Amino acid sequence: MRKFFNINLILITLISLTAYTDFTLGQKKIDVNNISMWVNSRGVIARDPFTGNAGLEWPKGQGKTAVFAAGLWIGATVNGETRVAATAYGTDFRNGPVGSDPNSQNYRVLSISSSTLTTDADYMQWKVTPGAPLNNDGSPQLIGDQTLYSVYNDADPTGHQAFRTQPLGAEVHQTVYAYNNSPEFNNVVFVKYKVFNKSNSTWNKTFLSFWNDSDVGYPFDDLVGFDAARDMEYTYNGTDFDPLTNNYNIPGYGSAPPAVGMALLKGALSSAGKNSQSTSFYTNGGGNPYGDPANGQEAYYFMQGIRSNNTPYVDPTTGQATLFPLSGDPVTGAGWIDSNPGDRRSLISSGPFDLAPGDSTEILVAIFVARGTTNLNSITKLRDTYDALKNLFVTGATKAYGNHYIINRTNSGIPLHWPAQGTTYSIDPQLPADLREGIHAGFSTWSQLPQLNYTHNAANDISSKWGGDPDGINNNVWVQDWTTITGVPDNVIAVARVRYNAINGELSDVDIAYNANIKNNGIPVGWAADGNPDNLDMQNVATHEIGHLSGLGDLYNPGDGETYVPAMGDGNEEMTMYGKIKKGETKKSSLFFYTDPANPQGDVAGIETLYNSLASDGIDIVLVFDGSSNYSSNYGAFEPSKRAAVGLVSKLRVNDRIAVVNSSTNVLDFVKIVDDNSRTQVKNYISALTSGGDGNIAQRITKAQSIFTAGGNPNNRWAEILFTTGEEFSSPRISDVLPNIKGTKTEIYTIGFNSSISKDLMSVVADQTNGMYHPAVDATQIVDAVNNFWYHLLGMQIVYLSEAFSTKQLENVPYPGLYWQGGLYWQGGLYWQGGLYWQGGLYWQGGLYWQGGGLELGLYWQG
Length: 863
Ligand SMILES: [Ca+2]
Ligand SMILES: [Ca+2]
Ligand SMILES: [Ca+2]
Known about the structure:
The protein is α+β, with helices and mostly antiparallel strands.
């Protein structure tokens, strides 16, 4: 609540009317969910323009309010002089963009919702108002279920009514939106501020703050705090009872009053990791340095997380200065907690940073309310709300459904990924110096994820090579002769060329080409390092392409064309991996917001899911050897079986596991393949096997099943390979034990010899367990059978083209050097240049937008 010298409702109203000279421009309410909140065209949020009183009603329709007023504060020094543009009880802003007529009705608050008609005045005006968010076709973009937009500026010195400093020359594009379609969002309103420096001077030591005077019902019994783990400041009732009636005629909440949270979901400092850089709290009537700032300088100190007399907040529990006062936990009583309830104000700030003339930056604020079983439990509920919305949400996302990521995989389904140590990249010496920084920044952005580790290899910056034979360098190249070099049209912005080991999915060489002469309908479109609205921003494009390098595919929305698949869901336009790009776009430079591993969403979740799923793509294999003299002597098959098994072990991937049964007691339990040592261990075991031993083939199959049951990884595929012809000389019979296996995860892979009477039985066993049957002439083809099984397990369909594809050659291929791409061709020679494909178009399709992803995920084999 505002501090007035004389608390008098009539006077409040008069002051309010005086302050809001643009009253007639038409404030609007955002009221699509449980929050009903006023928004005025000059940046004042929540305050009721008609009464001058609190104007965030929650729950909607009950006449109780939780926020008196809120708004953006911009503070900086310009040529050494402190300047602040703020909205508090008054506002320093005028309607419209810098230089526009502040009385123009065009700059009223515009509101659209799902029920808005295309003929509505706000809808029509929206399309031509600078900065109003638009869809790809130029139509107004509804974010959430109701979206409000306004643009205002502080350039008029006479407009500065809040703190009366000289203007900054700030222009603010304010988008307020809310959802009514998910429980997580029903008590949340989002406010996005895009702030432009429209002056001719650099703003130094700039801070952006979201200021608010939250009042939980009755204003004079509230407390505040900061939750450092959540970048959230909050206001709660000081006791468990908020007076229902009081002298000020402000309805209270009664028992178990709610709490109000304000969070910076996105700060202005994208690289800083933490969105809020400081907070400040002060009290109505507290007096310097505890009360309302008297001027711009005092306000600027509060924005920096220091008190208005330029002294630090000191945590009484530690004796240390802090930029985050009151960041203890009122629920547990730990740390520095607010006391002596009163009417508090709060700031949550991002900064300091410099903003050059023409530059802009953006912050995203969430305002939310929660009510628990007590005043303190309301804080817990507030945290729950924050956690839920943070999971679902991101910087400016418009929808909250769909997986929001596509993981590129080998044909057998293994995610493309880098080894744990990460990889290096290099940059073409021809790349302009300012653009190189965008590429470095893109790699740094992805490297912030714990799964990824990219480092610059400057020694290879001499290479301009793109494509051709893999050279082990992840090249970033600047291509002038675009179509000749890349083979794609001249309206493609960039392409990534991805090579990987098709056996294990490990990426091996990814080259990214940037089109130096990108054209739109034949007209050149330049590159920029600063988000210039007429150019392509390099960091924006590079971060997207490095997403492909990291194993992610493009995302689209419904209606974006045939590259869309339903798994992509909707609302993907804020993702880095969204396959379209606009001129001047910079949002792909930061990854989609995400914190909770239990509920993955977005770019970051894509990487996490990718790496988490690697371990579960393993195969558990049990080899079962027939010990009968029929198998070893009559068919001469025991020793060839051992050799085939040893060959198989060479091919196993990290995280695959293998066990061996050579009698009912001679058993090697699962060995997980970790490295060549584990492979050698298993190979040595197999090489030492001898025929004979107790247990017929049926008993050994039962033993194998018990190994699966006791130790099989439930996330892995279970494959049992039978080295037997299937001829039986005693009970139990295979047909006796098969029912115990049928219907389990176990797949049995069998071999039938031409001359064996049991080859049909072997075929049935494979068929009934979803395994595979391989007919063979004799024991010399056991190796072929096992290789066939392995490639089948990897999901590969082998096409025999010529004698060149022989198992002898395959046996000689050292792990993991075999480059095989399933389902296509064998090209002769042992090394197949696997997995080349064009990924991630981003190309111009005409009209207003960059249309991406145009090239299919087809395979382009490089000759
Ligand atoms: Ca209260
Ligand atoms: Ca207050
Ligand atoms: Ca390369």
